[in-house]
Specification:
The chain has about 150 residues and is an alpha/beta fold. Strands 2-1-3-4 form a four-stranded parallel beta sheet.
């Protein structure tokens, strides 16, 4: 109908620092299905955007360089269709979002904690980036989540 707009489903990705995993998830979902989802990310204890995450995402054409770490408290009281934690500690510290239709618990390794040479650390960022991409594509393409349209 004229004037009627499809409402985007709202997704909030949570992790502890809101520096890597949740930022990459936010970037991926915007990249693959931003026309269907309104996406945000936050952390229980935000520490700033990790340059390793920015570089890993840039390698695959997803720009998160302008993202900023946000504290989850700024989203309390907002309605989200999906609240998705991407690390175990955020799951444990996750505040209640009464309006959330679904709370999903995804767990990915923390690339910021990777040890080794700079190249070994980059490989961890790439692996986690690709794992998140797979989960995001599954989420965005599944009829069980969102509108399930391709």
């Amino acid at each position: 109908m004229k004037g009627e707009r499809l409402k985007k489903e709202r997704v909030l990705f949570l992790c502890t620092g809101n520096s890597c995993r949740s930022q990459m998830a936010e970037g991926w979902l915007r990249h693959v299905a931003g026309d269907r989802f309104d996406v945000a990310s936050a952390g229980t204890h935000p520490v700033g955007l990790n340059q390793g995450a920015v570089e890993a995402m840039h390698e695959v054409g997803v720009d998160i360089a302008r993202h900023a770490s946000k504290k989850v408290d700024q989203f309390l009281g907002e309605r989200f269709d999906y609240v998705i934690t991407v690390c175990d500690s955020a799951k444990e510290a996750c505040p209640t979002f009464p309006g959330a239709t679904s709370l999903l618990l995804w767990s990915f390794d923390d690339p910021a904690a990777a040890q080794g040479s700079p190249e070994e650390r980059r490989q961890v960022f790439r692996r986690v980036r690709d794992e998140i991409a797979g989960r995001i594509r599954q989420f965005a393409g599944s009829p069980a989540y969102g509108k399930g349209k391709h």
